[in-house]
Design a protein that fits this description.
There is one protein chain. The chain is built from eleven helices and six strands. With about 290 residues, the protein is α+β, with helices and mostly antiparallel strands. Helix content is about 40%, strand content about 15%. Helix 2 packs across helix 3. Strands 1, 2, 3, 4, 5 and 6 form a six-stranded antiparallel sheet that branches. The relative contact order is 0.14.
């Protein structure tokens, strides 16, 4: 019987050959340059972490593509990128103090309508006495040009309105104090700072994207003038005042419902050539002598 028994070396070689043949497809699969097909257990649409990562990449792509020179509509991709970075830094937006725009196209429409309605309501109470004209300077485009972008308004006391020559509240049965939402009356600066993002987004996307959007948007400045003073500004009779600060400077008790914004609207050839703008020096002062029309 010993003559028919296979040598141990032959059996060992046979087993090694069998193991090699069984493992060969696996080796070939890992060495293949082609990307293996995803099995149902590892598809990205079933993996939450991969879905989140892809969403983040899509968001970055969207924000990166929208921040070019064209503005791209009310609420731009560049604004979205800025918002996401500020949020990551731990800051938050208080909706009772700030009128904000999310950054996506069309996101500012409702916010703008609310601001305009507030403007009309408060304007009926106090007229131009509570109004402030707003200009935007784009120094990276042209540091000498100041563009008129609309008006803001704020709640003031009846006493302030009368002292400054305004008519006060026309409805004596409803004192304006009863219409104040916050616990403090807004200042001119607060009326602008609380709507800063809305004003700048509207100006650079709807009015003058060629002068304010894209590479110019990082340096935009807000300046003010007395309410309804456009003619005096054009005649070089008014010095514009720069508005510095951010929403952090708004006082406790301030409420954005106590202010409004009436945006400038271009019609006709203004859409191409632009509307009201004036030339001033770096301090907002006229560079030429005053004149009358």
């Amino acid at each position: 019987m010993n003559r028919h028994r296979r040598p141990r070396t032959t059996l060992l070689a046979g087993r090694l050959l069998l193991l090699f043949l069984q493992s060969a497809p696996v080796s070939i699969a890992f060495q293949s340059p082609q990307v293996p097909l995803l099995t149902p257990s590892c598809r990205t649409d079933h993996h939450p972490s991969l879905i989140k990562t892809q969403t983040s990449l899509d968001a970055k792509t969207k924000s990166g593509s929208g921040g070019g020179g064209g503005g791209g509509g009310f609420g731009s991709g560049a604004a979205t990128k800025k918002k996401s970075s500020s949020k990551g830094a731990g800051s938050s937006i208080d909706a009772t103090k700030v009128r904000s725009v999310s950054g996506y196209t069309g996101s500012g429409t409702k916010v703008l309508a609310t601001a305009a309605n507030n403007f009309d309501r408060i304007r009926k109470l106090f007229g131009k006495t509570a109004t402030t004209d707003v200009y935007v300077r784009s120094p990276l485009n042209d540091e000498s040009v100041f563009w008129f972008v609309g008006k803001v308004i704020r709640m003031i006391t009846d006493e302030e309105a009368q002292e400054e020559g305004g008519g006060g509240n026309d409805n004596n049965d409803t004192p304006s104090e009863n219409e104040l939402v916050g616990t403090v009356y807004p200042t001119e600066v607060e009326a602008i700072l609380s709507q800063k993002r809305l004003i700048l987004e509207y100006a650079k996307n709807q009015l003058r994207p060629q002068n304010m959007a894209g590479p110019y948007s990082s340096a935009l400045e807000l300046w003010s003038a007395p309410g309804d003073s456009e003619m005096d500004v054009v005649q070089n009779k008014v010095t514009l005042v720069k508005i510095d600060g951010s929403s952090r400077d708004l006082r406790d008790g301030f409420n954005v419902k106590d202010v409004g914004y009436n945006p400038e609207i271009y019609v006709g050839e203004e859409k191409e050539k632009g509307g009201l703008r004036v030339v001033r020096d770096g301090e907002g002062r006229p560079v030429k002598a005053a004149f009358d029309i």
